Amino acid sequence: MEKTRPKHLDLPKIRLPLPGIVSILHRVSGALMFIAIPVVFWLLAGSLSSQAQFDAFRGFIGFPLVKLALLALLWAYLHHACAGVRFLFLDVHKGIDLPTARNTAKAVMVVSLLLTATIGGALW
């Protein structure tokens, strides 16, 4: 019996299907939220300590780069929640056929981006 050698996988050339992209973004959004926990707690604690601190944090949040980071965190939360619901259905074997899996992956992307644009636009 001949040994089959490992194949070289050129990752940039591999076209990942949309359900795979949603899965990877689910993990990325979870990691982003986990990393942001200390910053969010710091902002919350600082804003609740005194009126002067609240005003300082409100000024800090007014910077465009900080707003963009908070918008990314909002997207992470919304994408993680939408994809999590999709994965819960997949865990109970609902929507595992290929057309449904592709459609639900599209729905997760569209809904999470629309919610981010709507909520982010209202808060900006």
Q: What attributes characterize this protein structure?
A:
single chain, 124 residues, mainly alpha, 4 helices, 0% strand
Count of helices? 4
Percentage of residues in DSSP E strands: under 5%
Residue-averaged pLDDT, rounded?
A: 92
Q: What structural class should be given to the helix and strand makeup?
A: mainly alpha
The span between the termini is 64 Å
Unreliable segments of 5+ consecutive residues? none
Query: Could you state the order of secondary-structure elements as H and E?
Result: HHHH
Using only CA atoms, what is the Rg?
A: 20 Å
- Helix-residue proportion: over 70%
Shape: elongated
Largest sheet: none
Number of strands: 0
Question: What is the secondary structure topology, with strand pairs?
Answer:
Layout (H helix, E strand, L loop, with lengths): L17 H32 L1 H11 L2 H28 L6 H26 L1
Helix pairs in contact: 1-2, 1-3, 3-4
Question: Can you give a write-up of this model?
Answer:
The protein is mostly helical. It is built from four helices and no strands. It has helices at residues 18-49, 51-61, 64-91, 98-123. Helix 1 packs across helix 3 (64-91) and helix 3 (64-91) runs antiparallel to helix 4 (98-123). The protein is elongated and about 75 Å long. The N and C termini lie far apart (64 Å). The mean pLDDT is 92.
